[in-house]
C-alpha cells in the first residue's frame, strides 16, 4: 500500500492479515488498509470496520476543523490605521468648529463646512484601493512563479514569515528515487558522472540485470504515461526503488523484463525480513535473485562476484562492505544489496523454502539511492538564512534520510538536531516549547498529524509567523492552523489543497522563497504609498490652521473642492504606481518583522507628516503668501470681493499647484525607505512616470479650462509664479534623500 497521503512515508508498505502488532500506533499497523491510500500491487479481502468520521481521514478532518480563518497581520494593521485616521480626522474637524466660530468669527455653518474640509484632507481616500491593487499585483506575480494564492491578504502574510516548516519528499527533493552509486568488488561506480550506455564493469552490469529480474515495476511506455496516482509517473508504475533500478539499468541499455513466464516463484518483500527474492528462468538456467537490506542479504551470501567469476566471501570483504554501508547510510542514502544463486539440477523451485533458496548466494554489490534534492533548493535555503528565516523539516520519512537531504541543501548550517516521531510525541507541551525556543534548525522525522499541529501551535505561541508545507491528507490540520498553509499542486491531495492558503504548482521549495520575497515587497510598497498619501495631509491641513489661528486675517489658502481634486484626482495614480514598485536591493537581507510590528509606526509618521509634509507645507504657504503679496494684499485685508478676490483665487491656485508639485517630489522620495534613489534608478518604475504625467495634465486642466475653473475656483497665475513650481519636487526629494543618507551613515 502507498500510505504516503496519511503517513508521509514515501515508500510503499506491505500489508497482510498475519502482520498484526498491537504495540504500534494505529496508523502504522500492518494489518489495516486505510481509506484514502492506494494499492500499488497485490490483492486482498478486507472487512470494513469504520467509515466517515471514524476513519483516519475522518480523524484528520476533525483536527482540520480546529483552525478557522485568521486575519493576516496586514488586515489587523489596516484596521488600526483606519481607527487612527478616523480619530485624527474627526478630532481635528471637531476642534476646528469652536476655533472657527470663536477665533475666526465664522458662522456655525461655515465652521462646519471647513471642519468637513479638514476631515476630507486627513482621510486618504486612495488607501484601500491602493492596498488592494498592491496585493492583487502580488497574487499575479506569484501565479507567474507557480504559486497560486487563494486569499489575497495571504501575500502580505508571506512577507512576515519567520519560520518555514517544510516537508522533504517532493518539496526539497524531486520526488524521484535515483541510483547514485554502486559498489562491487571492482570498485565504486558513480552514476552521477557515468556516460549513457557505457559499461563501467561487468559485475555492475550483472548486478543491474539481476535487479531487473527481481522487480515488479513496469517502466513507462516510450510515448509517455497518463498520471493516475502517486506511483504512475513518467518513469513507470511501481515501487520507486524498483523504478530507480530499472532506470539505472536502462542507462546501460539493459532492457526491462517483459516475459512474465520467466518468473517461477516469488518471495514477496517482508518488512520483518527486509528482503525480496524471485526464482527466474534465465535462458537455460534457473536463478534465485535477491535484493534487500544489506545486512540481511550479506548474512546469506557465501561468495562475492568478480569480473571473471566468483570467489569465497572473506571476513576482510565483509569488513570493507560494512564500512561502505556505514558511510553511505550516514549520508542518508537508501541502500540495497543484490545477490544471485544459480540452482542446481536437483533443486526444484516449487519445493524450496525462502531460506533454502537464498542461502549461499553470491553478492553482486550494494546500490545507493537517493531522492535527490532539487538543484535550486540550496540557493533558496541560503536566501532564507540571509533573510533571517528559520527552517524546520517536518517529514514522515526516516531520520537518517531526512538529515542527509537537509544537510545537502544547507539546512542546519549552524548545527542540525534530529528528533524522531516517538520522541516528539513523548514531549510535553513545555518540553516542545523549549525545543523550539532557540534559533537552531531541526528535523522532525516520522512525524504524525498531531505532532505537526503541535509544532505549529508552539511556534505561533512564541510569536512566530509560520508557513507550513504539506501534500498528504495527514498534513491538512497543520496546513489550516499555520499562518500560511502551502500545499503541493502536483503530488498533493485534494484535502491538503483545500486546507492550504497557497498551492505550489511545481511543488518547488524555491517558489516559497520567491513568494516570501513578493510578500515583503508588497508590505514595503504598502508602507511607501502610505508615506506618500500621509505626507499630503500636512500641506492640506496647515492652510486651515493658518486661517483659524489668525482669526481669518490670512484668507483660506485652499478650498474644499481643491482638496478633493488633490485626494481623488492628482494623488491616486502615483499612489497606485507605488504599489508596483520593484523590491529594494536589501529586501531579502533583512530579518523578518515581528508579528506585533505596526504597518504605521512613529518614524514613518515623522517622515510623512514631519519631514515630507512639513517641507511641503512651508513651500506651499510661501507660494500662497507670495502670490497674495504681489497682488497687493496686506495682512487682514478682505479678499471676498473686488480685485483682491481674483488675487486670492490665483493664490489658492498656487497652493493647489504647489501641493501637486510637492507630490511629485514626495512620490520619488517614497520609492525607497532605505536605499538611495540613484541606486534604485529614476526610471525603473514607468507606471509612476505615467502617473506623474497624468497629475500634471489633470492639474493643468483644473487651472486652465473654464468649466473646471468654475467648479474648483481656480485662476491662471502669472507665468513667473508658475516657474517657481519647477524646483519644488527637487527640494522635497532632496531633503528626504539627505535624511536617508544621514540614517545610512549613522546606523
Structure description:
This protein is α/β, with parallel strands linked by helices and 747 residues long. It has 29 helices and 20 strands. The strands form 3 sheets. Strands 3, 4, 8, 9, 10, 11, 12, 13 and 14 form a 9-stranded mixed sheet that branches. An 8-stranded mixed sheet has the order 1-20-19-18-2-15-17-16, with helices on both faces. Strands 5-7-6 form a 3-stranded antiparallel sheet, with helices on one face. Strand 19 (484-488), helix 18 and strand 20 form a beta-alpha-beta unit.
What's the quick description here?
By secondary structure, the protein is α/β, with parallel strands linked by helices. The chain is built from 29 helices and 20 strands.
**Structure annotation, total helices:** 29
* Oligomer kind: single chain
Strand content range: 5-15%
Q: Terminal Cα separation, in Å?
A: 59 Å
Count the strands? 20
Tell the overall outline: elongated
Largest sheet: 9 strands, mixed
- Mean pLDDT over all positions: 83
Radius of gyration, in angstroms, nearest whole number: 36 Å
Class by helix and strand content?
A: alpha/beta
Give a topology summary.
Blueprint: H1 4-7, H2 56-64, H3 73-103, H4 108-122, H5 127-144, E1 147-149, H6 154-159, E2 163-166, E3 178-184, E4 187-190, H7 202-213, E5 218-219, E6 232-233, E7 236-237, H8 240-251, E8 263-270, E9 275-282, E10 285-292, H9 294-298, E11 301-306, E12 309-312, H10 315-330, E13 334-342, H11 354-358, E14 361-370, H12 377-386, E15 390-394, H13 399-408, E16 416-419, H14 421-426, H15 429-436, E17 441-444, H16 449-461, E18 466-470, H17 476-481, E19 484-488, H18 494-499, E20 502-504, H19 509-535, H20 537-549, H21 560-570, H22 572-578, H23 602-630, H24 643-670, H25 677-680, H26 686-704, H27 706-712, H28 719-723, H29 728-746
Parallel strand pairs: 2-15, 2-18, 11-14, 15-17, 16-17, 18-19, 19-20
Antiparallel strand pairs: 1-20, 3-4, 3-14, 5-7, 6-7, 8-9, 9-10, 10-13, 11-12, 13-14
Helix pairs in contact: 3-4, 4-20, 4-21, 5-19, 7-8, 12-19, 15-16, 19-23, 19-24, 20-23, 21-24, 22-26, 23-24, 23-29, 24-26, 24-29, 26-27
Amino acid at each position: 500500500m502507498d500510505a504516503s497521503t496519511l503517513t508521509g512515508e514515501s515508500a510503499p508498505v506491505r500489508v497482510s492479515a498475519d502482520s498484526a502488532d498491537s504495540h504500534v500506533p494505529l496508523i502504522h499497523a500492518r494489518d489495516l488498509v486505510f481509506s484514502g491510500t492506494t494499492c500499488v500491487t497485490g490483492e486482498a479481502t478486507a472487512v470494513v470496520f469504520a467509515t466517515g468520521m471514524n476513519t483516519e481521514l475522518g480523524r484528520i478532518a476533525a483536527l482540520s476543523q480546529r483552525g478557522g480563518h485568521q486575519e493576516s497581520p496586514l488586515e489587523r494593521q489596516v484596521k488600526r490605521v483606519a481607527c487612527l485616521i478616523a480619530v485624527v480626522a474627526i478630532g481635528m474637524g471637531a476642534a476646528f468648529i469652536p476655533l472657527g466660530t470663536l477665533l475666526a468669527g465664522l458662522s456655525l455653518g461655515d465652521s462646519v463646512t471647513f471642519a468637513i474640509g479638514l476631515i476630507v484632507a486627513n482621510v486618504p481616500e486612495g488607501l484601500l484601493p491602493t492596498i488592494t491593487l498592491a496585493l492583487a499585483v502580488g497574487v499575479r506575480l506569484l501565479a507567474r512563479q507557480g504559486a497560486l494564492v487563494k486569499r489575497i491578504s495571504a501575500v502580505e502574510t508571506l512577507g512576515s514569515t519567520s519560520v518555514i516548516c517544510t516537508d522533504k519528499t517532493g518539496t526539497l527533493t524531486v520526488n524521484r528515487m535515483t541510483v547514485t552509486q554502486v559498489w562491487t568488488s571492482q570498485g565504486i561506480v558513480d552514476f552521477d558522472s557515468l556516460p549513457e550506455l557505457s559499461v563501467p564493469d561487468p559485475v555492475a552490469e550483472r548486478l543491474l540485470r539481476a535487479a531487473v529480474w527481481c522487480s515488479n515495476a513496469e517502466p513507462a511506455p516510450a510515448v509517455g504515461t497518463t498520471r493516475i496516482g502517486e506511483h504512475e509517473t513518467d518513469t513507470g508504475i511501481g515501487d520507486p526503488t524498483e523504478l530507480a533500478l530499472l532506470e539505472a539499468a536502462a542507462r546501460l541499455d539493459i532492457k526491462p523484463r517483459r516475459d512474465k513466464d520467466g518468473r517461477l516463484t516469488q518471495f514477496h518483500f517482508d518488512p520483518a525480513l527486509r528482503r525480496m527474492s524471485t526464482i527466474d528462468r534465465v535462458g537455460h538456467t534457473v536463478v534465485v535473485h535477491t535484493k534487500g537490506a544489506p545486512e540481511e542479504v550479506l548474512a546469506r551470501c557465501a561468495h562475492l562476484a568478480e569480473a571473471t567469476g566468483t570467489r569465497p566471501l572473506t571476513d576482510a570483504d565483509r569488513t570493507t562492505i560494512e564500512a561502505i554501508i556505514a558511510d553511505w547510510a550516514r549520508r542518508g542514502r537508501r541502500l540495497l544489496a543484490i545477490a544471485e544463486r544459480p540452482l542446481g539440477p536437483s533443486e526444484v523451485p516449487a519445493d524450496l523454502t525462502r531460506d533454502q533458496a537464498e542461502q549461499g548466494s553470491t553478492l553482486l554489490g550494494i546500490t545507493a539511492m537517493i531522492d535527490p534534492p532539487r538543484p535550486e533548493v540550496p540557493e533558496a535555503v541560503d536566501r532564507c538564512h540571509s533573510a533571517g528565516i528559520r527552517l524546520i523539516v517536518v517529514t514522515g520519512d526516516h531520520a537518517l534520510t531526512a538529515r542527509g537531504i537537509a544537510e545537502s541543501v544547507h539546512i542546519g548550517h549552524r548545527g542540525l538536531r534530529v528528533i524522531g516521531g516517538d520522541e516528539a510525541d513523548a514531549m510535553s507541551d513545555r518540553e516542545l516549547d523549549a525545543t523550539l525556543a532557540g534559533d537552531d534548525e531541526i528535523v522532525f522525522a516520522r512525524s504524525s498529524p498531531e505532532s505537526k499541529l503541535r509544532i505549529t501551535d508552539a511556534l505561533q505561541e512564541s510569536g512566530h509567523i509560520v508557513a507550513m508545507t504539506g501534500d498528504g491528507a495527514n498534513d491538512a490540520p497543520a496546513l489550516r492552523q499555520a499562518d500560511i498553509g502551502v500545499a503541493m499542486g502536483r503530488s498533493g491531495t485534494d484535502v491538503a489543497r483545500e486546507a492550504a492558503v497557497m498551492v505550489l504548482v511545481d511543488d518547488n521549495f524555491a517558489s516559497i522563497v520567491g513568494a516570501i520575497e513578493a510578500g515583503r515587497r508588497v508590505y514595503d510598497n504598502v508602507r511607501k504609498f502610505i508615506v506618500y498619501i500621509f505626507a499630503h495631509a500636512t500641506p492640506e491641513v496647515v492652510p486651515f490652521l493658518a486661517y483659524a489661528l489668525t482669526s481669518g486675517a490670512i484668507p483660506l489658502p485652499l478650498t474644499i473642492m481643491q482638496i478633493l481634486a488633490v485626494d481623488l484626482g492628482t494623488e491616486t495614480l502615483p499612489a497606485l504606481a507605488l504599489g508596483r514598485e520593484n523590491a529594494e536591493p536589501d529586501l531579502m537581507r533583512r530579518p523578518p518583522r515581528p508579528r506585533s510590528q505596526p504597518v504605521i509606526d512613529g518614524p514613518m509618521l515623522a517622515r510623512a507628516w514631519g519631514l515630507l509634509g512639513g517641507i511641503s507645507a512651508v513651500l506651499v504657504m510661501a507660494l500662497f503668501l507670495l502670490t497674495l503679496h504681489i497682488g497687493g494684499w496686506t495682512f487682514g485685508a478682505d479678499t471676498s470681493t473686488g480685485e483682491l478676490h481674483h488675487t486670492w483665487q490665483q493664490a489658492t491656485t498656487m497652493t493647489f499647484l504647489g501641493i501637486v508639485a510637492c507630490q511629485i517630489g514626495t512620490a520619488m522620495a517614497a520609492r525607497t525607505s532605505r536605499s538611495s534613489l540613484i541606486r534604485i534608478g529614476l526610471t525603473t518604475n514607468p507606471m509612476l512616470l505615467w502617473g506623474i504625467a497624468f497629475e500634471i495634465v489633470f492639474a493643468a486642466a483644473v487651472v486652465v479650462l473654464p468649466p473646471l475653473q468654475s467648479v474648483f475656483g481656480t485662476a491662471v497665475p502669472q507665468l513667473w509664479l508658475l516657474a517657481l513650481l519647477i524646483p519644488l519636487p527637487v527640494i522635497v526629494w532632496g531633503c528626504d534623500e539627505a535624511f536617508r543618507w544621514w540614517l545610512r551613515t549613522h546606523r
